[in-house]
Amino acid sequence: MSTLQLHDVSMAYLSKHEATLALESISLTVQDGEFLSILGPSGCGKTTLLSIIAGLLSPTSGHVTIGNQDLKQTKANIGYMLQQDYLFPWRTIQDNITLGQKIRGTYSQTAKNEALKWLDQLGLADKKNLYPNQLSGGMRQRVALVRMLATNPTLMLLDEPFSALDYQTKLKLEDLVFQTLKSEEKTAILVTHDIGEAIAMSDRVVLLSPRPGRIHRIFEIPTEIASTLPFEARQHMHYNDQFQIIWKEMESLATTS
Fold first, then answer.
1. Are residues 63 and 161 in the same domain?
2. Which residues does residue 83 pair with via DSSP β-bridges, in sequence order?
3. Same structural domain for residues 162 and 199?
4. Sorting pLDDT into bands at 50, 70 and 90, what band is 16?
5. Which terminus, N or C, of the chain has the lesser number of Cβ atoms within 10 Å?
């Protein structure tokens, strides 16, 4: 996939009585293979922005391109992973992970084998005939990751996928997702409220201002942190310095809003 670009994107929600501006003049370039995180206060439009990139919402003004092609004209394969796993409880794990293939019309024995291979790599091969309610929360999120990977997306959108997990499971899954996406050279955009998570997983962190969401500042994460697994990144000697820089910037936004 070629570079993702947002060109002066704004989004307003209209009601009978008023118009609410959620995002204003967002321009951003995301390079191939980059892991980008989006931070910002609640209500600043992070998820709205992700939905626009996914093609689920059309911006009020501006546009999104992938490889110089408008998002609506391109056939980009975009994966979306949410806070909830949204597995179908009446389907087995094997059926759940191949559902995306069936929807996209790419299902075949070869595609199914690829999905099962991912399931094996993520340590769940022996769970393929079970149902979601027989798995832990962390296992279910791994299944949701497999379901996304099974369609071979080139761009992955992650909307707080670890926030509902206990801390130990969250840290393990962060490492797993990071390692998987980096090894496959996937481009990823993560929405999170967690400064530490953003630093540990990302090449860059975009901080949005309070509503209407604008790009307030973009932080380049030092290579020595960005190139290591998230758990190890948190132990890095410069991690706390980076955390304090972003924390203070977010605090300044809170006091001026």
1. yes
2. none
3. yes
4. confident
5. C
Check whether residue 130 and residue 161 sit in a common domain. Answer: no
Read off the pLDDT of residues 66-116 as tens digits, 9 standing for 90 and up.
888 888 888 778 888 888 888 999 999 999 999 988 988 888 999 999 999
Q: How many domains does the chain have?
A: 2
The H or E element spanning position 62 is strand 61-66
Indicate yes or no: pTM above 0.70. Answer: yes
pLDDT at 1 over 60: no
Spatial neighbors of 9 by CB under 8 A, at least 6 apart, are 23, 25, 26, 27, 49, 52, 59, 61, 62, 63, 64
